[in-house]
Specification:
The complex is a heterodimer of chains A (355) and B (391).
Chain A (H helix, E strand, L loop, with lengths): L6 E10 L3 E2 L1 H9 L10 H5 L4 H6 L2 H17 L7 E7 L4 H14 L16 H10 L5 E5 L4 H14 L5 E8 L3 H9 L10 E9 H6 L6 E10 L14 H10 L8 E3 L6 H15 L4 E3 L1 H5 L3 H17 L1 E3 L7 E3 L4 E7 L4 E8 L2
Parallel strand pairs in A: 3-4, 3-5, 8-9, 8-12
Antiparallel strand pairs in A: 1-2, 1-6, 1-7, 5-6, 7-13, 10-11, 12-13
Helix pairs in contact in A: 4-6, 7-13
Chain B lengths: L3 E10 L2 E2 L1 H9 L6 E2 L12 E3 L13 H17 L3 H6 L1 E6 L4 H14 L12 H11 L5 E4 L5 H14 L5 E8 L3 H9 L20 E2 L1 E9 H6 L6 E10 L12 H14 L8 E3 L6 H15 L5 E3 L2 H4 L6 H15 L1 E2 L22 E2 L4 E8 L3 E9 L3
Parallel strand pairs in B: 4-8, 5-6, 5-7, 11-12, 11-15
Antiparallel strand pairs in B: 1-2, 1-9, 1-10, 3-4, 7-9, 10-16, 13-14, 15-16
The chains are: A alpha/beta (355), B alpha/beta (391).
């Protein structure tokens, strides 16, 4: 799905160990990124929801609802006018799944929790968030390794551009899970920097946003997703990116117009190398690349955070470097690329522009 | 917007491999719900379900769900006659819930049982099916995996239809898959939603659902592309609606508002009047609440009477993420053959269900327009509207 109507970003919500807040908080962080932890503090999560929700909802659902509400608040959008929801996640609510299974393993059928069972289905974050914010249009959970967040934004942008849904909340969320970390290490993938958190953007047609007096934080000029050939969970060899080509072409941009890129690098050496080769083949060597995953750790929320960060760069002309120096580079404002490439070949490209 | 037609079908169902076996079982009203053999059922009130019979496609190193998906996807691609070049740009949308959970459970269970940890954990995540199918068949277009609980397979078809209608791709492979898992079986037991006997949708004395497993895939194309290559067209996917209740995580909105909005959105997109729809393949799980609310929603949209309604779940159980696609295939085949598959095990029709639910035996009917409903946990509602042939 490529662009038709211009899609505006009118709200940002981020809940990570590095930053919790809206587009202003994210901008402040990006302008002077301090060292951060990978794990969100317990108190920070609890503060996002009311006590009743905190008792009733799993931690990953609390992260999701917290970030979605921040984004919606910044946008000042009324959900009753028609709001859809797309959430990308790699692992869903694995903690509840473990707890559900552990109940059975400890006590047999008597140990099963009817309350935990719905959380074992990956759409539990969408279900609880839709209730919390009153999203009654289409609501999707997209599951993909590495690029679930970017994919959610791309899918939501398509829904807005086509006019099928008046506005969309698009987000990503994951939490760190000890079983996953142990098994990834067992598979030799433990070097990747993984993190946790949730991030959302509110998307709506630019015309509608302007008409209601909303602040437009940036635009998604075009977005595309394709797949590069690769074995499941493997790294491929193909470098020719149809996703980038389609996104640039739809945005009316040439490869040389792209001065900066937010890429999905996260210290997964083989995958990062593949992504660098794909970007070089599509854009040449001049585009400056920022890989926030190197610093913040990869999770599905980061893909959405990178879209919000791209809108900030398009506005400010500043790009956080992620080579360990915690510097910010002056770049050409205007428009840049958000890129994601996953093991297995899922591949997303979004052109993000200033309003 | 481009018109979307169906040119290929594939199924792995409790009747075995293939669409022919699937339709033969459905149209004959054969209930495939039996004692479960894939998982342990000791200590549970319900011990039955609908398992896929026969040998599965693909390598034994793959998960059961991957193998179900590969079998059904391969059949759909072959049925549509898609060459490697067509597949290289085709979209692939998969609806999934359990992923490789059946094998992951065995892996997770084992240290508790005998202290050993198997060496390799196979692909667990729902997205693994799309990767396996894409890798096996060389599908290189847009690819994503949707998880909307029990409506996932129907959402996958709606997603593919939007990609084609919007001109992103001309052809897509889309469907849903799930294998029976312990967590699913135990969870529905914990919720007391499983009937110890084969489920009886729309029966006054229904007591819950039966779980099942399977995979269904369709090849969807733009009408222009299908015409140009003179492909066989089963049906037109003329409309769809996707809505959310935003009401409760496990219970549907008691007024069925979300369901009504999904059905009306499908009608609107198709430009169809309610009276044009002759058959509804219902979500029809067999739980007292779901069937009552769905019937109420159907009556609000289509009026009481008139419409023929049946539930495939009475024969193949609730196949979770596969249900939306397998039931869409049943709807397409009902249009194609002019035969409405029945609702099995329906002895005493519920007086609160104001429809002919086609008890026991299939019914000949000249159908031109039908809908398939799918509703999932979280109030995730989908309606697909099909017209016979090229509408």
């Amino acid at each position: 799905m490529t662009e038709r109507a211009e899609v505006a970003i009118t709200g940002v919500g981020v809940v990570t160990s590095a930053v919790i807040g809206d587009s202003s908080a994210l901008g402040a962080f990006l302008a002077a990124p301090p060292p951060v932890d990978d794990v969100l503090a317990a108190g920070a999560v609890a503060a996002l929801v009311d006590p009743t929700e905190a008792r009733r909802l799993s931690r990953v659902c609390q992260l999701t609802i917290g970030a979605a509400r921040i984004a919606l608040r910044e946008s000042r959008l009324d959900p009753s006018m028609g709001l859809g929801l797309v959430v990308g996640t790699e692992f869903g609510d694995l903690a509840s799944t473990h707890a559900f299974a552990d109940g059975f393993l400890a006590r047999g059928p008597a140990g099963l929790s009817a309350l935990l069972f719905p959380n074992t289905v990956m759409n539990t974050m969408v279900a609880t968030t839709a209730i919390a914010v009153g999203a009654r249009e289409m609501a999707l959970t997209l599951n993909a390794p590495t690029v679930a967040g970017e994919l959610a934004v791309t899918r939501a942008a398509a829904a807005v551009a086509s006019g099928r849904v008046p506005a969309m909340l698009a987000g990503g969320v994951d939490e760190l899970d000890p079983v996953v970390e142990r098994e990834l290490a067992h598979l030799g993938l433990g070097a990747e920097h993984r993190g946790e958190g949730a991030a959302f953007v509110v998307l709506e047609p630019r015309v509608a946003a302007r008409a209601r007096g909303a602040t437009v934080l940036g635009e998604i000029s075009a977005a595309a997703w394709r797949a590069l050939p690769a074995r499941p969970w493997g790294v491929g060899r193909a470098r020719r990116s149809h996703a980038i080509r389609v996104a640039l072409s739809s945005a009316g941009a040439r490869p040389t117009d792209v001065g900066w890129v937010y890429a999905s690098g996260s210290r997964d050496a083989a995958r990062d190398r593949w992504e660098a080769e794909v970007l070089r083949a599509a854009l040449g060597k001049k585009a400056l690349v920022s890989s926030l995953g190197q610093q913040l750790g990869r999770h599905a929320g980061l893909g959405v955070l990178r879209v919000a960060a791209a809108a900030w760069t398009a506005r400010s002309g500043l790009l956080p470097l992620t080579d360990g120096t915690a510097r910010v580079e002056q770049v050409r404002p205007g428009r840049g690329l958000v890129h994601g490439l996953a093991r297995g070949g899922a591949h997303v490209a979004l052109v993000v522009s200033a309003a | 917007m481009k018109r979307v037609v169906i040119t290929g079908l594939g199924a792995a169902s409790p009747y075995g491999a293939g669409v022919v076996a699937y339709w033969k079982g459905l149209s004959a009203g054969v209930c495939a719900i039996r004692d479960l053999t894939l998982i342990e059922t000791d200590g549970f009130r319900c011990r039955i379900g609908a398992e896929v019979a026969g040998t599965l496609a693909g390598s034994t190193r793959r998960t059961r769900a991957d193998r179900l998906a590969i079998g059904a996807a391969g059949e759909a691609l072959a049925d549509a006659g898609l060459a490697a070049r067509d597949r290289s740009t085709a979209a692939l949308i998969v609806g999934a819930v359990g992923g490789g959970m059946l094998e992951a459970e065995a892996w997770y269970w084992r240290p508790t049982r005998d202290g050993a940890r198997p060496r390799t954990l196979r692909a667990v995540l729902p997205s693994a099916h799309a990767e396996a199918v894409a890798s096996r068949f060389g599908i290189g277009g847009p690819r994503h995996t949707v998880v909307t609980a029990c409506s996932s397979g129907a959402v996958a078809l709606a997603e593919a239809a939007e990609l084609i209608a919007d001109g992103v791709v001309d052809v897509a492979l889309a469907g849903g898959v799930d294998a029976i898992t312990r967590i699913c079986f135990m969870g529905f037991n914990a919720l007391k939603l499983l009937d110890p006997m084969p489920c009886r949708p729309f029966d006054r004395d229904r007591r819950g659902m039966s779980i099942g497993e399977g995979a269904g895939f369709m090849v969807l194309e733009s009408e222009a592309r299908a015409r140009a290559r003179r492909a066989r067209v089963y049906a037109t996917l003329a409309g769809h609606g996707m809505t959310t209740d935003a009401f409760h995580v496990t219970a549907p909105d008691p007024d069925g508002d979300g369901m009504v909005r999904a059905m009306r959105a499908a009608l609107q997109l198709a430009g169809a009047a309610p009276r044009e729809v002759q058959y509804a393949n219902a979500h029809g799980t067999g739980t007292p609440q779901n069937d009552r609310i769905e019937a109420r929603a159907l009556a609000r949209v289509f009026g009481e009477g008139g419409l023929l309604v049946s539930s495939s779940k009475s024969m193949i159980g609730h196949t979770m993420a596969a249900a939306g696609t397998l039931e869409a295939i049943a709807t397409v085949l009902a249009l194609e053959h002019g035969v409405v598959p029945p609702t099995a095990n329906l002895v005493t029709p519920d007086p609160e269900v104001p429809f002919d639910c086609v008890a026991h035996a299939s019914r000949a009917a000249q159908l031109t327009c039908a809908v398939s409903n799918s509703f999932g946990f979280g109030g995730q509602n989908v309606t697909l509207l099909f017209r016979r042939g090229v509408a």
